Amino acid sequence: MKRSIRVGNAHAFWGDRLAAARELLALEPGLDYLVMDFLAEVSMSILAGQRERDPAAGFVRDVLTVVADLAAFWSTGGRCRVIVNAGGLDPAGCAAACRRVIEEAGCRAVTIGVVAGDDVLGSLRAGGGPDAFTNLDSGAALDTVRDRLVTANAYLGAGPVVEALAAGADLVITGRVADPSPVVAACRHAFAWPADDHDLTAGATVAGHLLECGTQVTGGISTDWLDVPAPESIGFPVAEIAADGSCVITKAAGSGGRVTTATVKEQLVYEIGDPGRYLSPDATVSFLGLEVTEIGPDRVRVAGARGGPPPESLKVSATYRDGFRAAATLTMFGPESVTKARRCGAIVLGRLAAAGHRFRDTLVECLGQGDSVPVLPPDLVPTDAWETVLRIAVEADDAAPVEAFTREVMPLVTAGPQGTTGYAEGRPRVHRLLRYWPCLVRADRVIPTMTTLVTADTGPARRPAPAPAPVRAAFATPPAAPPPGPPRRLLDVAFGRSGDKGTGANVGILVRDPADWPWLVSWLTAERVAAWLGPLGVEEVTAYPLPALGGINFVVRGVLRRGLRNDAQGKALAQAVLAMPLDAPPTR
After folding, report:
1. Which of 83, 175, 466, 554 is the right S-S partner for 118, CB 3.0 to 4.6 Å?
2. Structure confidence at residue 468 (pLDDT)
3. pLDDT for the residue 383
4. Three-state DSSP class for residue 506
């Protein structure tokens, strides 16, 4: 049995860099496993739309480009095993398409494992009592949307992926699997861990959580992003996971970005909910005792995860049709640009109302003026801006008023203020609106399946080609920040990260100096955060202290109910909280 394994990530979402797997394996050909995530919460709905137009389009076709690169790697003797969830709504169809790509590439025989069984749409449509499948965010009954359901997929755990690896799979293709579970599966297979050793599983779950968002743990979207070296060649992460469940997060030598305790902590608090009860289908994990230690350049050790039995139910990501939406942008350049932009927005919506069009919601935002998260203090919002991006968004039950909106915006090009520009893309498109419905299903109602297929051997195996030298673009290094003065804003003493969870959001805030953590807990209360973010429609804020990490994770409920906002996923909320003025900064 191995004492450690090396697991890399080369894809964090549908739309990430398709060349990343090839580049990472060129720099790290000895990786044991490579995991790639293609599915966000609404990805299944996009795939459902594709499948309605083409029955063979129920999976993420981008993966075929990646698999062509993997075939070249395998054909030269590479042995890294790969786990991807690009199967979407059709893992079997994805596997068949991947087999064709591999065989056409002239590759050795490759075993493909196919994991399915996550589709529970039939169960949701069939019902199961008045309290079955209620919305985890709102408590609403499924009956309110049952006839409009599009997809429903349970988050499977590591079990069927372990079966695929045990069957010799070089490539495992899944549908909906919990984000950390591929890493858990790799560890269980490599170390022969029993499924009921919850502490070991917790350690692997933490490693999987750190890897799942790709470059977010190597400096991507970090608070101090301007200080990240060589972001043009930012490296994807690698976890060196030990048999005791601890891990070291690093990246390929020669790649850009950085791995520090700060980048690791930011990712640890990303979208975790209650850090004492992080729920996955493999274990219930506590992050409260995690130890994060920098042990060398771009090497951070994470240990101390504790686990308990997994929940008896699996989370389900369901989606349903809920009308139509569109958004349009125009740029206003010149004096009093904000006043002009808001007047243009009122003109468009006024004309539509006069014509009898009715909308469920409308929104006018002046981007560049703090409207993405309209909570900034006055000294951070320019009052005499000569440039503003006007964004108007609408949604309605029917397509007709939304189509009328798309036709009403463009006349501003000649009827609006001088300096109106940015209209080269023409009329905005009408989009069918898909809403997210999170709920639970009993685990015993979900029966995962695993099958395998083997590609034809169409090429001799050869020795791995030498890794090419990394290519660096000639980007200028940003100037060093000036020496800090007295702390004026939370940003001066803290950093953080935020993201969506249904109609709520997670906002993780961490101190830069561990000595400031007692001050942070006493000053940055749930009540203060609720008041600061109040204009966004906050319903409730819960604070979860993280003393070992020097931070607090805030779960902010209701803040993302208004899906028309520019920041519909809550990615800017941490920056907004960090803008809070300090009326009582920590004493040093």
Report:
1. 175
2. 45
3. 80
4. strand
**H helix and E strand count, the chain:** 15, 23
Angular region, 242: left φ>0, alpha ψ -120 to 50, beta rest: beta
HEC string of 376-396? CCHHHCCCCCCEEEEEEEEEE
- Asked whether the CA dihedral 83, 85, 89, 94 is positive or negative, the reply is negative
List the beta bridge partners of residue 395.
325, 361
Q: Any long-range contacts for 198-201 (C-beta under 8 Å, 24+ apart)?
A: 198/283, 198/284, 198/306, 198/307, 198/308, 198/309, 199/245, 199/305, 199/306, 199/307, 200/244, 200/245, 200/307, 201/158, 201/245, 201/282, 201/283, 201/285, 201/307
DSSP per position, 274-301: STTSEE-SS-EEE-TT-EEEEEETTEEE
- For residue 305, report the phi and psi dihedrals to the nearest 5 degrees: -70, 145
Contact 566, 372 (CB under 8 A): yes
Q: How far apart are CA 248 and CA 234, in angstroms?
A: 18
Question: What is the mean predicted confidence (pLDDT) over 315-323?
Answer: 94
Instruction: Please compute the mean of the pLDDT values over residues 491-520 and round it to a whole number.
Output: 94
Q: What is the pLDDT of residue 43?
A: 87
Full-model pTM: 0.93
Quote the DSSP letter at residue 181: H
Integer-rounded Cα Rg, in Å, for the chain is: 25
What average pLDDT score do residues 60-86 get? Answer: 96
Write out the DSSP string of 309-346. PPPSEEEEEEEEEEEEEEEEEEEEESTTHHHHHHHHHH
Q: How is residue 412 annotated by DSSP?
A: H
- Cα 540 to Cα 563: distance, rounded to the nearest angstrom: 18
* CA–CA dist 258, 223 (Å, integer): 13
Residue pointed to by tokens 């890399």: 8
Tens digit of each residue's pLDDT (9 = 90 or more) over 257-285? 999 999 999 999 999 999 999 999 999 99
What CA dihedral angle connects 48, 52, 56 and 62, to 10 degrees? Answer: -50
Cβ pair 184, 190 in contact under 8 A: no
Pairing status of strand 171-174 against strand 237-242: unpaired
**Cβ 157 vs Cβ 97: under 8 Å:** no
Residue 359 CA to residue 352 CA, distance in Å, equals: 9
Residue range 157-200, pLDDT digits in tens = 999 999 999 999 999 999 999 999 999 999 999 999 999 999 99
Residues 6+ apart with CB under 8 A from 324: 395, 396, 397, 398, 399, 402, 430, 431, 432, 433
Q: What's the CA gap between 394 and 349, in Å, rounded?
A: 9
Amino acid at 126: A
- Candidate from 151-165, 279-293, 482-496 with smallest mean pLDDT: 482-496
Bridge partners of 327? 393
* Cβ 223 vs Cβ 496: under 8 Å: yes
Tokens of 478: 């940003």
